Amino acid sequence: MDTQPRIPLDLSAIVIPCPDVLVQELDGEAVLLNLDSERYFGLDDVGTRVWQHLLEHRHLERVCEAMQQEYEVDAASLRTDVLQLVEELVEAGIVMVEQKSTNDPGDS
Questions:
Q1: Is 64 a member of any domain?
Q2: For 20-68, what is each residue's pLDDT tens digit?
Q3: Whole-angstrom distance, CA of residue 13 vs CA of residue 76
């Protein structure tokens, strides 16, 4: 399987979906399929919201800010959970880290 070199992930990362990934959402949950590796990845309702925010914002800091507005959870736990999920998505070939942002996440 073609994998991206390991890039340490932090909130300054810009994350984009890999080009050969199909997504099917149903009842608030999602199944993601990497067509290259033929691996499936399932997301529960919270994971699906992270996915939707990734598509909209791309900057992990902005994703965390959006999630914080939706869920009553402390910011540190939320950041840890989002980073862990994104690391799993990178490892599964679902998303890739495009670059590290040097600008304020609100700039895009």
A1: yes
A2: 999 999 999 999 999 998 988 999 999 999 999 999 999 999 999 999 9
A3: 17
DSSP state of 43: E
Does residue 38 belong to any structural domain of this protein? yes
Distance CA 27, CA 16 (A): 24
Residue 37 maps to a domain? yes
Domain that holds residue 91: 13-97
Count of structural domains, the chain: 1
H helix runs in 38-100, sequence order: 45-57, 60-70, 75-91
- The tokens describing 80, both together, are 């840890």
- Computed from CA positions of residues 29, 99, 35, 89, in that sequence, does the dihedral angle turn out positive or negative? negative
pTM for the structure as a whole: 0.83
Rounded to whole angstroms, what are the CA distances from 95 to 22, 27, 34, 75?
Answer: 11, 22, 10, 23
CA distance 57 to 95: 14
CATH number for the domain that contains residue 58 = 3.90.930.60
Strand partners, 13: 100
